[in-house]
Amino acid sequence: MPELPEVETVVNGLRPHLSGRSIVQVSHLDWPPTVQPLEPEAFRSAVQNAHIANVSRRAKYIIIHLQGGAAIVGHLRMTGQLTYHAQPAAPGRFSRVIIELDNGAQLHFDDQRKFGRLRYVAADQPLAGALPDLGPEPLAEDFSRADFAALIARKSLRGNPRIKQALLDQSFLSGLGNIYADEALHLARVHPMRQLRTLSDDEIGRVYDAFQQVLRQSIANNGTTFSDYRDAFGGSGSNQDSLRVYQRTGQPCLNCGTPIERIVVGGRGTHYCPTCQPFVGD
DNA sequence: CAATCAACCTGGGTGC
DNA sequence: TGCACCCAGGTTGATT
User: Fold this and answer.
1) Which of A4, A77, A151, A210 has its CB 3.0 to 4.6 Å from that of A187, i.e. a possible disulfide?
2) What pTM did the predictor assign?
3) Which stretches within chain A are classed as H helix?
């Protein structure tokens, strides 16, 4: 579910409600792997009475900054939801962790598939060490088209993967996932199987412009909700109404009417228009 | 080092 | 209705 726009939407929703609050206790924790490597009891005692300073995002990670330098680093993976409840609510079918706040509100972490994580990072541990190797933020102000072209040039010498796989590689560029990679390549009119070395400067520029546009548009639409994704208050996004190729296999391309095709690239379902995104190269 | 693939989980949809 | 099988927004660790 959650790619950069969805995580951004959740973080922006949580920030004003969590900043300045303190954690009273963890009142529910029914899937210990959620908080590993800590044991549930260690997680409970670590966050109890902590004061929340701020909430931020890095790539697809949600970072709840605690006063004193500790943090809770969350990742929603496929079906996670992190929601703020002004009034206490009973655990849902998929509630994994519930945190009680000092104003009587609750923070619920729900996750059907149990892939999501809430990891406590102590004040004496570097936050960066809790995150994997992550490439640049695609919407960072100082991440220019030339920076992207330089990344492509470097990667084309080291592996030369297909553009779809490069866009999904979080250590190359962070934040894009399967939806927005497909959407961006369609907007850029670049076939997902194109190898980096075959891309022209113009095509690289189009891909850069396209991922910025699709990410910004989705943030404006509060993300894409197919089934599981919810914002910080349980609401759905609306960007699913603006998708051009993702999960539109067999439906007409919005540009030219050609049926959208689905192939597998790097093990991921990939959607594209064979007319607007012709394959050239090898 | 890079590419591939299984694994982590559950549930919805489809076809027989 | 039952069942086998495929699919899903992500990441990681083992293997080749």
Assistant:
1) A210
2) 0.97
3) 4-18, 40-47, 145-157, 163-168, 178-188, 201-220
Instruction: Look at residue A77 in the predicted model and tell me its pLDDT.
Output: 97
A1 touches strand C (CB under 7 A): yes
CB A246 within 8 A of CB A182: yes
CA of A16 to C1' of C9 (A): 26
- Point out the residue nearest to B2 (C-alpha to C1'): A159
Q: How far is the CA of A33 from the C1' of C2 (A)?
A: 33
Asked whether residue A231, judged by its CB, lies under 7 Å from any atom of the DNA or RNA strand C, the reply is no
Exposed / middle / buried, residue A280 (Cβ in 10 Å: 0-12, 13-18, 19+) = exposed
- A39 a catalytic residue: no
All residue ranges of chain A with pLDDT < 70 are 1, 282
- CA–CA separation, A88 and A250 (whole Å): 45
Please indicate whether residue A2 is annotated as part of the active site. Answer: yes
Residue A175, CA: closest nucleotide via C1'? C10
Q: What share of chain A is helix, strand, coil (3-state, %, to 5)?
A: 30, 25, 45
Nucleotides of B under 7 A from a protein CB: 1-6, 8-12
- Residue with the two structure tokens 């640049």: A136
Catalytic: which of A21, A44, A57, A60? A60
| C6 C1' to A96 CA distance, Å | 27
Predicted local confidence at residue A226, as pLDDT: 87
Long-range contacts of A87-94 (CB under 8 A, 24+ apart): A91/A28, A91/A30
Distance, in Å, from the CA atom of A128 to the CA atom of A125, rounded to the nearest integer, reads: 9
pLDDT tens for each residue of A103-150: 999 999 999 999 999 999 999 999 998 999 999 999 999 999 999 999
**pLDDT number for residue A227:** 86
